[in-house]
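Dear Dr. L.,

I hope this message finds you well. Following up on our conversation about the binding site, I have prepared a predicted three-dimensional model of the protein together with S-adenosylmethionine. For your records, I am including the exact sequence and ligand specification that went into the calculation, followed by the structure tokens. Please feel free to forward this to your student if that is useful.
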Amino acid sequence: MTTDTNQEKKKEQKKSRTKPYIPNLAEFYFKPTYDWSREDAKRLYSTTKSPSSKFELDSIRFEDCVMGMKQLPDESIDLVIADPPFGIAFDGKSSVYNRDERLVIEGYEETSESYHKFTTRWLAELPRIMKPESSAYVFSGWTNLDDILQGARDAGLATLNHLIWHYPFGVYTKKRFVTSHYHIMLLVKNPRKYFFNKIENYPEDVWSVKRQYRTGLAKNATKLPLEVVSRCIDFSSKPGDIVLDPFMGNGTTAVAAKLNFRRFIGFEINEKLRPLLDNEIDAAISGESYIPYSERLATIEELAKIYPKAYREYIRREKEI
Ligand SMILES: C[S@@+](CC[C@H](N)C(=O)[O-])C[C@H]1O[C@@H](n2cnc3c(N)ncnc32)[C@H](O)[C@@H]1O
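The resulting structure of the complex is given below.
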């Protein structure tokens, strides 16, 4: 490098250091870390191979997930999404949940051993089957959080984020606060090297998403919103990746994966859910919800309306270049 170019570079650096901070200006320059066109995403999706001859891609096995995960090969899973049973006396039928009991499918499995033991056992299976850069999103109510955190530590998984899913609805209470949030632990095998696609400039750790109610349709006792599960998939996997859900329930993970050009493998102990799961998954069209990440961002015109001051600065800087 010549002295002239060195001086130019120093001047540039000084100039950028002296530029004032303009709130929200970064929104105008933001680009997702990784992105794929629909064609590329579809190609990746259609070329994924099953990790084992025992496991068909996009299938659910009706068995205990601990037994099932033991059959999975080492480092075969790109992302885990797990919403385990609560381990409290919850059958999803109580009238406080404001649902028609006749539509809740029987057989929702609670744990018979202590919740701590159960949690430790299933979490211990994850590190072996997760690929080195993969992540696990584990859902938990606050009552079981201690066991999940302890189980993750015992399994040697590192907690990257402690997300809160806030839903604007809760069980009516007389003498305490209404619980209207869920915890989602983002766990990784290696906190120095993991896959994370920053698809938003400022992805906060509180997600406000309404709970989904399937009025008039048969359902398992609990169901996560598709939006919450899709966010986990979007931030922590690539098209064609294999997503494992050890506790399939209504199949939200399977549906979200299929709609977004991801593959899935899952376990569910309750055989009675088979027809419901088949219907849900058959009704989902592969890739239907997939939109390249840069196309999901607000346009410059939309941003200009929300952040007029930052927009003026953006235009000024663009002219300078
Ligand atoms: C909280 S629900 C999952 C709901 C799901 N995330 C959804 O959105 O529909 C937990 C599910 O785990 C199942 N389950 C409980 N113990 C299990 C085990 N050992 N192996 C596999 N599935 C199990 C239950 O039958 C139940 O359907």
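In brief: Confidence is low (pLDDT under 50) at residues 88-103.

With kind regards,
A. P.
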